[in-house]
Design goal:
The chain is 84% helix and 0% strand. The chain is mostly helical. It has one domain.
């Protein structure tokens, strides 16, 4: 496989990964919003209950209680989606590095070919 064919393959896979990244980023944003909305509602509810009972809650206690009662797994889903986005972002970085390397290789090959053709020891074809 030539360097140009390798580059074309990398660019095709990069494009597919970019689409997957966009979808994952959208899913991560949705799951983060769902978790934050749930946590905000729970925070308000728990603060009101604590105030009625005359109990003071620390922020850490409140956050821990909300997290412990996350039966829907919203926090876990948000974290998993964020990790997926990070992994896909790293994969896009790999594709960028691979394509840069292949472009450099192609440019070097072209430069080498030009230098070879300009050499006085190479007869000109007329």
């Amino acid at each position: 496989m030539t360097a140009q064919q390798k580059l074309n393959d990398v660019l095709t896979r990069w494009d597919t990964a970019a689409e997957a990244f966009a979808n994952a980023a959208r899913d991560a944003a949705r799951s983060k919003v769902a978790w934050e909305k749930h946590a905000a509602v729970e925070r308000v509810r728990r603060k009101a209950e604590a105030a009625k009972a005359g109990v003071k809650l620390t922020v850490q206690d409140l956050n821990a209680a909300i997290l412990a009662d996350d039966e829907q797994g919203l926090y876990g889903a948000a974290e998993i989606n964020e990790a997926l986005v990070t992994g896909l972002r790293k994969r896009l970085d790999v594709f960028a590095a691979q394509s840069d390397a292949l472009r450099s290789e192609i440019a070097s090959d072209r430069q080498r070919e030009r230098a070879w053709m300009q050499s006085p020891s190479v007869p000109e074809v007329r």
